[in-house]
């Protein structure tokens, strides 16, 4: 099972999530009288990104994070922050893990997580807002919602 991690973090159990340091955009908080929404939620999407022309796994990761980061940098007003991290695949038998990527003949597929922090009234609305604001920037890329949590 894929789990969220940064490149330098060792594999952890499949239910843990490790935050990425790759924050691509952050809005300053609005004052309470400007905002119709009372809560913030973090919506985590899983997606696969195809990279062509890369020779190493690290090149694949760098290119994928850069390409996705450029696209999600132009999200809407209800999105506060978008973090990108590489999925990790862990071995249940030996406890080791590796980045979720497959590189064959300079063409790769890498698994990424997008953590989207949005202003919303509840978790269902948060997912819809995140999908509406991020989805169009990642044309023809399926987004699978894997977690929705209120921000403390």
* Count of individual helical segments: 2
User: What's the rounded overall pLDDT mean?
Assistant: 80
Please bin the fraction of helical residues.
Answer: 10-25%
The number of distinct structural domains comes to: 1
- CA radius of gyration is 16 Å
Number of E-state strands: 8
Order of helices and strands: EEEHEEEEHE
Shape: globular
Distance between the termini: 27 Å
Return residue spans where pLDDT drops below 50 for at least 5 consecutive residues: 4-35
The largest β sheet comes out as: 8 strands, antiparallel
User: How much beta, percentage-wise?
Assistant: 35-45%
Helical/strand content category: alpha+beta
Any overview of this molecule?
- The two termini are 27 Å apart.
- It contains two helices and eight strands; from the N terminus they run E-E-E-H-E-E-E-E-H-E.
- It is α+β, with helices and mostly antiparallel strands and 152 residues long.
- Strand 6 and strand 7 form a beta hairpin.
